[in-house]
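TASK: fixed-backbone design
INPUT:
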C-alpha cells in the first residue's frame, strides 16, 4: 500500500460542478554578478522597479552579517553555503519554497500550472576545479527527475557557443554537462557581452533550462542598464500558464450535517477499500478524486449553495504589492523602536 507522503497532486480534479479558466502570465527573472560590492548590490531595488522580476538570481553579492545587504526586508533571500550565489524572491513570487543549498549553489521551487519549476543560482571561481559545481548541479537535477529547471550561473567558462572567440577546458566540461543533462542554453552566440571591464569583455554568465516546452516559452536578453558592476543584468521572461478553479460554496451554518454524513456513509466502505488497495500513484490519485466527488455529492444533497458575486480587481498590481510589504516592514520597525524607547 502506498502513502500520501510520497506524492503531490499537482492538479485538482475536474468535477462536473466546477468551472475553470486559464490565464497565461509572463514571469520575469533577473540574473547578475554583483562582484561582492555594496554599490552594485544596491541597484537591485532600481532594477526591480524597472523590470518587475519575480526572482533575482545573483552571484558574488555583497554580504553583511550573513545576509545580502541593502535590499528590502520583504524580499526573501537564500544563499549558497559559501555565500557566493543567492536567490531573491520578491513579494510578487507565487509561494516560493526553499529547496536546498550546496557549497556553490542554492535552489528554490515555485508552482505553475504546468507543474513545479526549480530555480537555481550558482557561482564557481575561475581558480577552482569546475567539476565540483557541475557535480552539485548533477545531484540536484537527478533528484528533480523530469521537472522543469532554470539555472543561472557564473561558471567562468569559455566556449564559442555562448560568445567567446576561444574554448577552454572548463568550457568543454560545461558543454559536456549540458549535453549529458539534456539542458537548453538560453545564451545567444551573437549576444552582447555579459561582462566588461576596461579593455576586457566576456560571456561568463550562463542561463540554461530543462524542459522542451519551457525552453520554447522563454526569451533571454542582456540589458544595457547601468549596474555599477562589470557584469550586466540578464532578463529572462517565461510565459507560464495558470488555471483558476471555482466551486460552489455551501451554507453549513444552518444544520444539515447529519444528513450529509448519512449520504457519505453509504459510500464509506467502498472508498476506504479503494484507498487501502492503492499501490501506485495513479491508483491513489483516482481514489482521492473519488473521495472528493463523494463528499461533494453528499454536500449537494444536504446543504444549500451560497450565492456570491465575483469581485474583479483591476487596479491592484505587483508594484503596489511591493509597496504594501515595505510599508508593513516600516510599521514593524516603528513599533520595535517605540517599545525600546518605552523600556
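OUTPUT:
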Amino acid at each position: 500500500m502506498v502513502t500520501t507522503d510520497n506524492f503531490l497532486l499537482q492538479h485538482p480534479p475536474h468535477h462536473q460542478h466546477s468551472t475553470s479558466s486559464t490565464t497565461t502570465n509572463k514571469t520575469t527573472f533577473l540574473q547578475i554578478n554583483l562582484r561582492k560590492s555594496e554599490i552594485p548590490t544596491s541597484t537591485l531595488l532600481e532594477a526591480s522597479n524597472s523590470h518587475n522580476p519575480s526572482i533575482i538570481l545573483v552571484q558574488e553579492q555583497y554580504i553583511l552579517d550573513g545576509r545580502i545587504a541593502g535590499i528590502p526586508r520583504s524580499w526573501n533571500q537564500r544563499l549558497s553555503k559559501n555565500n557566493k550565489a543567492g536567490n531573491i524572491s520578491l513579494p510578487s513570487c507565487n509561494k516560493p519554497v526553499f529547496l536546498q543549498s550546496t557549497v556553490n549553489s542554492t535552489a528554490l521551487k515555485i508552482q505553475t500550472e504546468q507543474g513545479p519549476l526549480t530555480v537555481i543560482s550558482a557561482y564557481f571561481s575561475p581558480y577552482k576545479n569546475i567539476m565540483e559545481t557541475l557535480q552539485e548541479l548533477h545531484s540536484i537535477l537527478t533528484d528533480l527527475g523530469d521537472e522543469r529547471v532554470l539555472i543561472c550561473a557564473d561558471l567562468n567558462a569559455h566556449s564559442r557557443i555562448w560568445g567567446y572567440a576561444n574554448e577552454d577546458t572548463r568550457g568543454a566540461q560545461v558543454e559536456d554537462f549540458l549535453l549529458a543533462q539534456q539542458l537548453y542554453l538560453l545564451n545567444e552566440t551573437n549576444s552582447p557581452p555579459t561582462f566588461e571591464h576596461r579593455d576586457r569583455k566576456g560571456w561568463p554568465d550562463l542561463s540554461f533550462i530543462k524542459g522542451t516546452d519551457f525552453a520554447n516559452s522563454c526569451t533571454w536578453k542582456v540589458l544595457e542598464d547601468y549596474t555599477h558592476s562589470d557584469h550586466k543584468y540578464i532578463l529572462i521572461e517565461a510565459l507560464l500558464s495558470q488555471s483558476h478553479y471555482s466551486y460552489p460554496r455551501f451554507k453549513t451554518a444552518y444544520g444539515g450535517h447529519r444528513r450529509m454524513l448519512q449520504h457519505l456513509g453509504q459510500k464509506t466502505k467502498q472508498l476506504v477499500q479503494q484507498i487501502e488497495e492503492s499501490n501506485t500513484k495513479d491508483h491513489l490519485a483516482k481514489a482521492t478524486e473519488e473521495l472528493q466527488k463523494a463528499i461533494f455529492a453528499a454536500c449537494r444533497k444536504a446543504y444549500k449553495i451560497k450565492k456570491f458575486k465575483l469581485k474583479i480587481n483591476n487596479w491592484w498590481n505587483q508594484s503596489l504589492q511591493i509597496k504594501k510589504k515595505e510599508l508593513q516592514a516600516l510599521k514593524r520597525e516603528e513599533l520595535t523602536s517605540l517599545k525600546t524607547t518605552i523600556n
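COMMENT: Confidence is low (pLDDT under 50) at residues 1-15.
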